[in-house]
Amino acid sequence: MSDPEDTGDAGTERPRESLFAAPVMAEQERMVEAMLFASATPMTARALNDRMPHGCDAAEALVHLQKRYEGRGVRVVRVGDGWAIRTAPDLGFLMREETVETRKLSRAAIETLAIIAYHQPVTRAEIEEIRGVSVSRGTVDQLIEMEWIRFGRRKMTPGRPVTFVVTETFLDHFGLESARDLPGLKELRAAGLLESRPAPGLGAPTGPDEDAAEEPDSGQSELFED
Amino acid sequence: MSDPEDTGDAGTERPRESLFAAPVMAEQERMVEAMLFASATPMTARALNDRMPHGCDAAEALVHLQKRYEGRGVRVVRVGDGWAIRTAPDLGFLMREETVETRKLSRAAIETLAIIAYHQPVTRAEIEEIRGVSVSRGTVDQLIEMEWIRFGRRKMTPGRPVTFVVTETFLDHFGLESARDLPGLKELRAAGLLESRPAPGLGAPTGPDEDAAEEPDSGQSELFED
Amino acid sequence: MTKPDQDRVVAHPSVAERLEAEALIVDVDGFEGPLDLLLTLSRTQKVDLRRISVLHLARQYLDFVEKARDLRIELAADYLVMAAWLAFLKSRLLLPPDPEEEGPSGEEMAAHLAFQLERLQAMREVAARLMGRDRLGRDIFARGLPERMERVKRVSYTATLLDLMQAYARIRTRDEFRPFVMDRDRVYTMEQALERMRGMIGFAGMWTDIASYLPEGWGGDPVMRRSATAATFAASLELVKEGRAQIRQSETFAPIEIRRTDRERPT
Known about the structure:
Shape of chain C: rod-shaped
Order of helices and strands of chain C: HHHHHEHHEHEE
Largest sheet of chain A: 3 strands, antiparallel
Keywords (chains A, B): Cell cycle, Cell division, Chromosome partition, Cytoplasm
CATH class of the largest domain in chain A: Mainly Alpha
Shape of chain A: rod-shaped
Oligomer: heterotrimer
Number of helices of chain A: 11
Organism (chains A, B): Roseivivax isoporae LMG 25204
Protein name (chains A, B): Segregation and condensation protein B
Radius of gyration of chain A: 35 Å
Distance between the termini of chain A: 90 Å
Helix content of chain A: 40-55%
Number of strands of chain A: 6
Largest sheet of chain C: 3 strands, antiparallel
Strand content of chain A: 5-15%
């Protein structure tokens, strides 16, 4: 039952006097370990003892076991009157499995975002005017939550409406130095993006950087004229 | 164990992670320990790795962990592709309360299960040929319901019959690392009893479906060939 | 049960074996098919299955079937099929091989039957070994209190620069060709043109290019010019229909000219 190695330590503590000597402590520790592991509820020392052969001392075995698990991935902990094996608190993060599902932004969101990027700083009313439909609160909230847009300065117009601007995170995500690097209408058209359907062979559009380099003043200034 | 080399490796693979070196192996071992303790079902090294920080090597940590638990009350065991912690078999007597009553299997079900395990992937016709009687639907259904068998790939023989194979739950239940470790497998193979021998012309009549006799080579080899 | 020794399953000195043979008949339902029955019968030979006398086994089986018939026990069809096959096998084993005859020899057939029996026996043995292993939930235990692995699902939205530009392009394109939205500022209606021309036509005694009737400010922007031209032309036709004006075009693509009808003068 017991390993010869185990008998070394524990054997000195409890010499085997009789035929019915209790198992050596190392063996008792194994038993407690197995029971705590398999039990669906915390177990008291008494309950452990009841299952073990006569002469065993579950309380002592628990002390050894607890020490053995110190600093391990799981610990032997007291739960009320009983004992249980639990994950070490610092490893709780492993018990959470975070799955990230990537979804495309909705059409409404991407359009709103595009308008903010091209027209910033822009008020909600202006976005609605350009899109021709009202902008839902959820769409704006989503973009703010994604940290792609934020509130800009209020407009100095009646009502002092808030404006929206794009963020650093936005520029980062789209690989832009500034919102000015966004291609203007001319480039969009040159890239075939102004056709209602982009040509099937259309690869990546000409990078905004190149475009911007050729026509430094294109883009927003042109677009802002209305 | 706690190697700076590890960090080096991980660093070159994932340049962006270089600031965050993989945890030392002792720490990885703790993580694997915590996750295996927390799960009632086996987990693959891959699943473990997925939860661990970048650059970790669950497979290596598992080797260390398995060694650490040698001779203890619980063990780290391999179950098919997965790993699990299970109580040591010699301590089963302590767990009478946790004992789960397994449904009594009929003789037909036990034989069918053994045939599937040793001959997998095996078709229903082959099972019938070996047992000499038709396999009742209920028997197969019961084994599938217990999650001990499942459908395997179809045989590339006329009619493309479905095959049955045993599951990881089966391996877990019977304490097998893999189907290669089935008791007596080697002897059976050496005795030629796992070959599907076509009946010479007029074979002894067997199960209702005799198409099995046409099968040139039976499964076994596929799974157990080394 | 206690039938006298007129059994044909003779040559069994032991009472126990005789009883066993009896039991076979009574308990025919307990067999899992003919192969199982054959395997049970073969045990009476007390030899390794590899050295079994198939001929003897065939006789035992045929005796069994005979008995069942005597006792009016209805045997399932597959038992009878096996009986017919064994009878055939028996004859093949007993008669000297006919060189003319095709097909497998009696020995080959017997060997295969022995193989089948051995295989079935082997499967039974390993099944027993399998069931006797330390089993999960009986001898080996899993964690009694598995901790819940929490699954947190996070949705991350993404878009590419292409998406962004296409979206913007879509919006701008909508502005440029708005076929269904009447853009009142930039459309000159026929009603507007007619009203304007009604006021002016009375003074047009000379042929005049209808382009000169375009309202002020509508000549520059091509969209507006087109709209105004179309409206003015339509209004001119309307005036002609009313009999208040005449219209002409000297040649294809030449300017369209209009003047008031002379008939109006007398009025």
